[in-house]
């Protein structure tokens, strides 16, 4: 799909639309095109579906919005040099049944195709009026979409934000955070190891080795000896831990 804007003329090209619409050209009244700018005419070009008879398959459709007319050009019939046409003057009340014979003209190069009745023409006009309304809605959406894209592009051009590459280790904040965390872990690895070791040592019951020495019939002197031994062992452990902490502070 593409959209080309030249002044007040917009041309859109489509691919693989279910309705076989290939090109739509919209002519606005001269001036800056906005959502409320009046539309002069809409021209549409369609592909051909072989399942539909050529004289019923529209090739080109023109909505004269301001003039209140609709022109239809149908595909070539088999072995035909001319194309069927049909034009309508839209009723003021937009009621298809208000169409009179003097408000429509047609040309059919194939003499085997019967002249359409007024009922058929009313149905055709009703379909074209619906198609006209749908086309105008799509055009208005296209105008809004284009203005949104232009505004976004202008904002991006005036507020440029450069995103660092994921492999740029100096400017990528995420990479910097990861590296800082890694450096912190490396710097405190020995401290973490010693902390875990201290935690394991803290779970050891220092009195447990001396419990077998204690008994209910132990004398006061024996109890004092066990107590002094436990305290001496605890002091030695605390001294070793204090020395380790001092060594870390010195480093």
UniProtKB/TrEMBL annotation:
It holds the Pfam family MORN_DRC7. One of its GO terms (biological process) is flagellated sperm motility. GO terms for cellular component: motile cilium. Residues 6-162 form the Dynein regulatory complex subunit 7 MORN domain. InterPro entries: DRC7/lobo, MORN_DRC7. This is Dynein regulatory complex subunit 7 MORN domain-containing protein. The lineage of its organism: Eukaryota, Metazoa, Ecdysozoa, Arthropoda, Crustacea.
């Amino acid at each position: 799909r593409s959209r080309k804007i030249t002044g007040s003329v917009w041309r859109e090209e489509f691919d693989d639309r279910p309705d076989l619409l290939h090109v739509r050209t919209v002519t606005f009244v001269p001036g800056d095109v906005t959502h409320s700018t009046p539309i002069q005419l809409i021209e549409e070009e369609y592909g051909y579906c072989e399942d539909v008879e050529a004289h019923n398959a529209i090739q080109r459709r023109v909505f004269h919005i301001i003039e209140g007319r609709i022109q239809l050009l149908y595909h070539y019939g088999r072995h035909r040099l001319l194309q069927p046409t049909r034009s309508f003057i839209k009723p003021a009340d937009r009621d298809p049944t208000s169409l009179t014979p003097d408000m429509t003209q047609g040309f059919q190069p194939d003499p085997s195709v019967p002249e359409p009745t007024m009922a058929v023409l009313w149905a055709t006009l009703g379909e074209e009026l619906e198609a006209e309304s749908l086309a105008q809605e799509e055009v208005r959406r296209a105008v809004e979409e284009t203005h949104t894209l232009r505004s976004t592009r202008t904002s991006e051009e005036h507020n440029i934000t450069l995103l660092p590459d994921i492999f740029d280790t100096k400017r990528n904040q995420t990479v910097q955070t990861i590296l800082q965390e890694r450096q912190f872990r490396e710097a405190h690895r020995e401290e973490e190891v010693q902390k875990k070791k201290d935690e394991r040592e803290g779970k050891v019951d220092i009195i447990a080795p001396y419990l077998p020495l204690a008994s209910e019939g132990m004398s006061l002197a024996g109890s004092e000896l066990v107590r002094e031994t436990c305290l001496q062992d605890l002091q030695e452990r605390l001294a070793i831990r204090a020395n380790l902490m001092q060594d870390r502070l010195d480093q």
